[in-house]
Design brief:
It is built from 16 helices and ten strands. 43% of the residues lie in helices and 16% in strands. Strand 1 and strand 2 form a beta hairpin. It has one domain: 3-Layer(aba) Sandwich (Rossmann fold), CATH 3.40.50. With 319 residues, the protein is an alpha/beta fold. The relative contact order is 0.16.
């Protein structure tokens, strides 16, 4: 049975309004979701943190859910995204907080740690390791190495994904949010052309491997949110990939914020070499890898994620 999720407060942050969901009191822990998700993706973590004595705060990020969705790619730069988080701290009269990030939430936090590390007491990062800024435009590198059909490259070139995802939101989530779709070992054995992650190709399938991640009630929350808000604003985060690289490549590529990294052995987006390359660049790093877990870590294995989070918090940020 899904635990009751709190009602949002509408909070002015930066130049927009965010829908923010909160449970508990005590030291603040702010949770940032990824694509294509919502604050609701933390439905298992908010009560666990609150019950342990923390103040759990999760916004629908810019362009998502009940938060504002300003028009224009330039409204979704890394400066805007980090500005929202800084605005949230200010709105709650917080000098700093512990942050939790998954997927794009993790990417945002890594960049915020480079530019505003003093605002982060500690980070819990799910799935996405720290990638040092490359010497060349990362979108061009992806285009050369992974081709035009790779989803991040495809997002740059047209609005086809926006339109096709929005045309059948239920199918999009039925295809996307699944567990046990493919193991990392099996993925590594595929020929190169089969490893290219094309979300448009996935949309063309009538069904996908594995099992549904969401129950009927949870599925309805995601479908209703994206039927109302569409996909253009969330995809615009990706359309600033090159801009973000140009903005932050000059910064020293080293993280000094205490960090817990929770990875998933069957996340096909992240290879073990990516995690290894992160280690010398994060000075205070603890790593745990979840077995039989894919990309949707906090929703696939919520009890184990909660256990790791609370253990780390108890050792590093006692209530």
């Amino acid at each position: 049975m899904t635990k009751k999720f709190p009602q949002p407060a509408i909070v002015g942050c930066n130049d927009i309004r965010l829908a923010v969901y909160e449970l508990g009191s005590g030291p603040p822990v702010i949770l940032l979701h990824g694509f294509p998700e919502l604050a609701y993706s933390w439905r298992h973590q908010l009560p666990a943190l609150a019950n342990a004595g923390y103040r759990a705060i999760a916004p629908d990020q810019r362009g998502y859910g009940r938060s504002d969705k300003p028009t224009g790619v330039e409204q979704y730069t890394i400066q805007k995204l980090i500005g929202d988080v800084l605005g949230l701290l200010k709105a709650y009269a917080l000098d700093k907080a512990v942050f939790v990030g998954h997927d794009w939430g993790a990417l945002l936090l890594w960049q915020m740690a480079l530019s505003h590390g003093e605002k982060i007491a500690g980070m819990i990062i799910l799935n996405i390791p720290f990638y040092a800024s490359p010497s060349s435009d990362p979108v061009q590198l992806m285009r050369e190495r992974l081709g035009e059909h790779f989803y991040i490259v495809n997002f740059q070139d047209s609005d086809e994904a926006d339109r096709r995802f929005a045309a059948d939101v239920a199918h999009f989530f039925d295809i996307m949010m699944r567990r046990n779709q493919i193991s990392r070992a099996r993925f590594d054995q595929l020929p190169p052309e089969k490893k290219v992650l094309s979300l448009l190709a996935a949309m063309g399938r009538k069904k996908s491997a594995g099992e549904p991640l969401l129950c009927a009630q949870e599925r309805r929350v995601f479908i209703e949110a994206f039927e109302a808000g569409g996909f253009t604003a969330p995809i615009n985060w990706y359309r600033n990939w090159s801009h973000n690289w140009r903005s932050y490549r000059h910064l020293p590529q080293h993280i000094d914020v205490p960090t817990l990294f929770i990875g998933a052995n069957d996340d096909v987006v992240v290879a073990s070499r990516h995690i290894e390359s992160m280690k010398p660049r994060v000075s205070d790093l603890e790593i745990h890898m979840l077995e039989n877990c894919g990309h949707w870590t906090q929703q696939e294995q919520p009890e184990r994620v909660n256990e790791l989070m609370l253990d780390w918090l108890a050792r590093r940020y006692k209530v």
